[in-house]
Amino acid sequence: MDASLFTSMLFATVVAGTPLIIVALGLLVNEKAGVLNLGAEGMMAMGAVAAFAVTHESGNPWLGVAAGMGAGMAMAALFGLLVLTLMANQVASGLALAIFGVGLAAFVGKPYEAVALQAVPPIRIPFIADLPLIGEALYNQQALVYFSWALFWGLLWFLHRSRAGLVLRAVGESPASAHAIGYPVIRIRYLAVLFGGAMAGIGGAFLSVFYTPMWAEGMVAGRGWIALALVVFATWRPLRVMVGAYLFGGVMVTQLFIQGSGLQIDFPSQLLSSLPYWATIVVLVAISRNGNTIRLNSPVSLGKPYRPEA
């Protein structure tokens, strides 16, 4: 493999893994607070179509990102109303949110099909981008790629070095105990759910405005479900989420390079297209084979409703 091909594949891997990192880290905060939201696919879809529509009408991609974030938060607020206020089942509500969001996005996005946006130029970091092999791949990227890295480090600090992160984890472990010492459990869970929705909306905005600057029905293509799986199989550890996301991106890029290279391979193209999903599942299952590790890191109250006693 020559240097230019390696750089190109590394660049594409980072780009492909970015929306997964953003969405999965948002869902990780949800689940650390004890809330299981399976609606990531729907929130991403709504974020993608809202971001595309606003960017197309305004010409400003950052207004589009803000709109995508707002759409994701609105969907998350609906989910929070159902499961935190009305005490609906979290699994059923999340699945309904995913189906509703995908369908609504397809309906809202009909006028924007076959419309393309102007590509957003990347941000090149001087000097560092001149490093051989990795410079152009890592430091000549879209702003949201750098945001995903900042989000990762910020979340590490928040969860393990801040008082607010400790409170969040306490709410996820034992909401009754957190309530007993005076913490507003429902409010904290609402904030966590809204944060997860915001990140899902940004992930969707990245797809429709930066990754492939166009809107097409089904463009999220299961990434919301992959992000959910990343959180669980990474045993709620941000670093493993990053590794899993880039693994998915790497395998996706590899199969695209193989299909685009013109190599004669006796495999159906559909099988090659499914390789990223298979590889992600196999590797994440392998790194989480120890059930005790999963139980040790899983928030105790995950998916369990809680109503504070007056």
Automatic annotation (TrEMBL):
Keyword rRNA processing included in the entry's annotation: no
Gene source species: Thauera aminoaromatica S2
PANTHER family in the record: ABC TRANSPORTER PERMEASE PROTEIN, SUGAR ABC TRANSPORTER INTEGRAL MEMBRANE PROTEIN-RELATED
UniProtKB keywords: Cell membrane, Membrane, Transmembrane, Transmembrane helix
The protein's name in its UniProt record: Inner-membrane translocator
Membrane topology: Multi-pass membrane protein
Stretches that traverse the bilayer: 6-28, 35-56, 62-84, 91-109, 143-159, 190-212, 218-236, 243-261, 267-287
Residues annotated as signal peptide: none
Family matches, as InterPro entries: ABC_transp_permease (IPR001851)
GO terms for MF: transmembrane transporter activity
Main location: membrane
Subcellular location: Cell membrane
Domain of life: Bacteria
GO cellular component, one term: plasma membrane
